[in-house]
Structures are given as structure tokens and as C-alpha cells.
Write a structure and sequence with these properties.
single chain; alpha+beta; Arc Repressor Mutant, subunit A; ADP-ribosylation fold; 2 domains; three-stranded antiparallel beta sheet; 11 strands; globular; RNA_2'-PTrans_KptA
Amino acid sequence: MSDKRITEISKFLSMVLRHKPEKIGIQLDENGWTDVADLLEKSNRFGIPFDLEMLKHIVDTNPKQRFALNAAQDKIRANQGHSVPIELGYASQEPPEILYHGTAEKSVQSILATGLEKRNRQHVHLSSDLETALKVGQRHGIPFVFKVFAKQMYNDKFEFYRSDNGVWLTHEVPVNYLKRNEE
């Protein structure tokens, strides 16, 4: 299977498991899980055919670990990034001192005015390392990285969660907890 085909299926999975399950007629439960057999059948009818072996390959090899299969491997979900309401079941955790948020240079002034907002997603996504934040920013244009004073936020009673693939999540980051990364 070509890298191009794997990328196509991965993007499709992101769309239906994070944003538009109704597009192919699947349903996500309250925790974001859907039936693998149903997903495979409806993906095939939608014109994006793949089998269980390919699905397992994508889950296992996705560099961002976007998806998870349950222990029985009969249910799948996206690890984070949903715009549909689901409860991922993550427990609040104490974050490291500093986290990072990658964005595009064109968004900097807006962020400095309002802070980081979840907008149409359930959480603001933060990275534990600068390299990952830079990669995220590059997807949106000329990259720009903010330092987030996560430990200070936590001490000020903001909640943080860590997804199964290591992405830090919070509901917002007010401007006073942001600093332009100068590294």
C-alpha cells in the first residue's frame, strides 16, 4: 500500500472519527468509539475501501498516534481533536512547567488579543516539545510558537489532560499565560 493511500485513509478517518461521523452514517458513542465492522462497511460504500489489516496498520504506524483500537480491536476512536461532543474520559493531570503551542504567524496578533481558544474543538492542543509545536505551526503557514506557562495555569486552577498520544489538552489559555518563544 502506498504512502499516498495511507495518508488518504488517515485523513478520511480523522474526518469521520473527529468531525463528521454522519457523513458515512456511523455513530460515535459518548466516549468517541464506533464499531470497526460498521466503519469498514460504510467506508467501502462511501468509496474509501480498506480492510481491517489496513486499519490496524494505520492505527499502529500513524506518527501522531491519532487513533486507538480497544483491547478487543472491535471499536476505534480518535484520540483527540473532536469537534463533535464526546467525553474522552481523561483525568485531570499536572502538566510540566512549560508547554508549547504551534500556530501560523498570521494568527499571532489574534491570539495575543484573545488568548488560545478551543473554537470549534473541545480543547486547546499543546505540545510538550518545541519540535512538535513547530511542525503543527508549519501546517498552517509560516510557523510561530508560543510558550505556555502550564504549571502556573495549573496552580491557578486550570485543568489539563493528556491524551493517549501525548497531546496536552486544556479548555483555554488566557493571554497572561503566553509568551512568544524566542528559542
